[in-house]
Design brief:
The protein has strands at about 1-10, 10-15, 20-25, 35, 40-45, 50, 60-70, 75-80, 85-90, 95-100. The protein has about 100 residues and is mostly beta strands.
């Protein structure tokens, strides 16, 4: 069993080969481009375990950009009591969907 734990944009992801993940938006990334995830905290390949202090040096995991997506909509409601003031806004966070082909 192969997997790795990486640190990207303030979050930690458990990466497995052949799966896709939504990370924060990469503005200048185009579909099909590869990005390198180089902040690897933990790596496991069968019985071999590598633990970073805090990161593994000279290690990278290639990730392919497959889509730019938006997250689920959240509703922001602003009110002022006793003034009949209500404003409703919606927000959808943009994400970049990446696929891990190999570790």
């Amino acid at each position: 069993m192969k997997y790795a734990i990486t640190h990207t944009s303030g979050k930690q992801f458990l990466l497995k080969p052949g799966q896709w993940y939504d990370i924060d938006l990469i503005k200048n990334g185009k579909l099909g481009d590869f990005i390198a995830m180089n902040k690897i905290l933990f790596f496991r390949k069968n019985n071999l375990i590598q633990l970073g202090k805090p990161f593994l040096g000279m290690s990278q995991i290639p990730a392919k950009i497959i889509q730019q997506v938006k997250g689920t909509k959240i509703i922001v409601l602003k009110t002022k009591p006793k003034k009949k003031y209500t404003r409703t806004r919606g927000h959808r966070q943009p994400y970049t969907r990446v696929q891990i082909d190999s570790l």
